[in-house]
From TrEMBL:
It comes from Embleya hyalina. This is Peptide ABC transporter ATP-binding protein. It is found in: Cell membrane; Membrane. Belongs to the ABC transporter superfamily. InterPro entries: AAA+_ATPase, ABC_Ni/Peptide_Import, ABC_transporter-like_ATP-bd, ABC_transporter-like_CS, MetI-like, MetI-like_sf, Oligopep_ABC_C, P-loop_NTPase. GO terms for biological process: peptide transport; transmembrane transport. The keyword Transport applies.
Length: 618
């Protein structure tokens, strides 16, 4: 879904409707208020001096007999103008200070970062008062002071976001390709930080409104004869004890507008997917003529022509993959081959700014292009359980939360289930261990905890992304055995991602080999022994040492390197590293063809016995 429909959807929620109404109301008052209520607001009436609030004057009259309610209405425009002006200064200042460290050299960048940190640590109000005094007392100098006062916090956010985006592979790729720093900032960094910055700006605007009103209230902001809501509050200071309603008008206006700014931020956050799971956009691929097979139709997970794109490069190219009920499928390939992104797309977890498109992306009868996977039917086990477990919570609490949230279990029942699941994954003394925090577990135990967390529901598919990479060989074998047992007992299907074809062959029924974001071969594990068809699969197998490997000879490696993100290849992407590559391989990309039951390969010159089958099929 593109941004406009998501915004429309967010505006249809009760919060969206309230935000739209409040924003429209404030805008209308700001535009038409001075025209409609200007005369009443400025009319001095010596007979009506200091009138209390009532039916004639909603908030009473001031020391010159002017109607306070009318003055609140008229003050809306100036208050908003000044707030927006100061916000603009905060944003411009924040953006400039925020991206400068990425543009300047290391030393100058560090100096700016340190200055920003210092300014953020300095008490905000003192800083603004200091600037207000330097610029002199006056409306626009106060706006400058407040804008500059809010700039360091904005700059800190921009710096952090810029640093995060600057560390991504696509920025690295752009650098390698010689793209200049300014271009990287404008093309790659700013568009990717725009959304969180926009959300922050809404909060900054609310803060600036309150700060400006505070300055005017202190007499350092708007000066007579002009007036904003802060100044109106100041004028009623000596009457507030006698007639509190005289201060309610400007006070309520400040609070209501501040809340509206906050709500605008919430609605933008809702529309951008800034809260909770960052579901990517999914667009159907336009023209693909193949019809889904009956096998694909009945699959538990069916992915058809899946593409995952990041700004500047496509990471997953037209991947077609199915996992049937109870089946274990392994995805193997070198780092960067797109294994994780394929699995993350199936779980609806591709990180921003990734964009997912697929002709079909279906899990358990749910169209993942439109809906998230249902409840706990899909479990994820990640490579780094320390990063996936909350260090501040006991593992029992984290596991129990799944049962409480998804199954409506009571606290005690949820904890009992957590204990049972920890026991089931081989944690000794689960009753005691349940009250420990993640750092009190070893790496292998934490991985077991992650698997137990997946089992808190009734998963139909467990996606395990390199679950054993960080573990030593013995623990690795235990975790693999556990995944096998879990699968046997729960009947769940398994999608196991690994760079190690040996690991996959121990646990899975079927192997999918990926290279440069494409599936290059797929075969039943049993066929591995007869030989694979794709030279890349053969090279992966060749790189795995066995008990008979000659220790005097260096281990086999695959020459060359996989393509960098964004590096477009012509022909077969593996051709530059393939000893069998012909001219055709270098000019024409092979398509993934079925070469037998459960076997597919994308190669113009496949190896082994599979070739005969291929010829028969052709
Ligand atoms: N958040 C991201 N932003 C930009 N590019 C990304 C992002 N995540 C992954 N990529 C790129 O997508 C490609 C595939 O990544 P993916 O993580 O799927 O590879 P992988 O095969 O799982 O490798 P690894 O085993 O190292 O995790 C890589 O080239 C990577 O640089």
């Amino acid at each position: 879904m593109s941004k406009a429909p998501r915004l429309r959807q967010a505006l249809r929620t009760p919060m969206g409707i309230a935000t739209a109404i409040l924003s429209a109301l404030i805008l209308l008052v700001a535009i038409f208020g001075p025209m409609l209520a200007g005369d009443t607001a400025d009319r001095i009436d010596t007979d009506a001096i200091g009138r209390h609030s009532g039916t004639e004057h909603l908030f009473g009259t001031d020391a010159l007999g002017r109607d306070i309610a009318a003055r609140v209405v008229v003050a809306t425009r100036l208050t908003l103008e000044l707030t927006l002006f100061a916000t603009l200064i905060a944003v411009l200042g924040g953006l400039i200070l925020g991206v400068l460290p990425a543009v300047l050299g290391r030393r100058a960048g560090r100096l700016i970062t340190a200055t920003v940190n210092l300014l953020v640590a300095f008490p905000g109000l003192l800083f603004v008062l200091f600037l207000a005094v330097i610029f002199g007392v006056g409306t626009f100098s106060a706006a400058f002071a407040i804008g500059l006062g809010a700039a360091p916090a904005t700059a800190r956010l921009v710096q952090n976001l810029t640093a995060a985006v600057a560390g991504t592979d696509y920025v690295a790729a752009a650098r390698i390709l010689g793209v200049g720093r300014f271009r990287i900032i404008v093309r790659h960094i700013l568009p990717n930080i725009a959304e969180p910055v926009a959300l922050f700006v809404a909060q900054v605007a609310a803060g600036i409104l309150v700060a400006f009103s505070g300055l005017s209230f202190l007499g350092l902001g708007v000066q007579a004869p002009d007036y904003d809501w802060g100044r109106l509050l100041n004028e009623q200071l000596d009457r507030v004890m006698v007639d509190p309603m005289s201060a309610v008008g400007p006070g309520a206006a400040i609070v209501l507008t501040g809340i509206t700014f906050g709500l605008i931020g919430e609605v933008v956050a809702g529309a951008s997917g800034g809260r909770g799971a960052n579901r990517p956009e999914a667009e159907p691929v336009a023209s693909i003529d193949e019809q889904p097979t009956a096998e694909a139709e009945s699959a538990l997970l069916h992915v058809d022509h899946l593409r995952v794109r990041f700004p500047g490069h496509t990471a997953v190219h037209d991947v077609c993959l199915s996992v049937t009920e109870g089946e274990a499928v392994g995805i193997v390939g070198e780092s960067g081959s797109g294994k994780s992104l394929t699995a993350l797309a199936a779980a609806g977890l591709v990180p921003h700014p990734g964009r997912v498109s697929a002709r079909t992306l279906r899990f358990a009868d749910r169209d993942l292009n439109r809906q998230a996977p249902k409840g706990t039917s899909l479990a994820m086990v990640f490579q780094d359980p320390m990063a996936s477990l909350n260090p501040a919570l006991t593992v029992g609490r984290q596991l129990a939360e799944v049962a409480e949230v998804h199954h409506g279990a009571g606290r005690a029942a949820a904890l009992a289930r957590a204990v049972a699941r920890l026991g089931a994954v081989g944690i000794i003394n689960p009753e005691q261990r349940v009250s420990k925090r993640p750092h009190e577990f070893s790496g292998g135990m934490r991985q077991r905890v992650m698997i137990a967390m997946g089992l808190m529901g009734e998963p139909r598919l467990i996606i395990a992304d390199e679950p054993t990479t960080a573990l030593d060989v013995t623990v690795q074998a235990q975790v693999l055995a556990l995944l096998r047992d879990v699968r046997d007992e729960s009947g769940a299907a398994l999608l196991l991602i690994s760079h190690d074809i040996a690991v996959v062959s121990q646990v899975c029924d079927r192997v999918v080999v990926m290279y440069a974001g494409r599936i290059v071969e797929e075969l039943p594990v049993g066929d591995l022994a007869d030989g694979v068809a794709h030279p890349y699969s053969a090279a992966l197998i060749g790189a795995v040492p066995t008990m008979t490997t000659d220790r005097d000879v260096p281990l086999a490696t695959i020459p060359g390197r996989p393509p960098e993100p964004g590096e477009e290849s012509v022909g077969c992407p593996f051709a530059p590293r393939c000893a069998r590559a012909s001219d055709r391989c270098r000019t024409e990309e092979p398509v993934l063809e079925r070469i037998g039951p459960g076997r597919r390969v994308a190669c113009w010159d496949p190896i082994t016995t599979a070739v005969h089958e291929l010829e028969e099929v052709r």
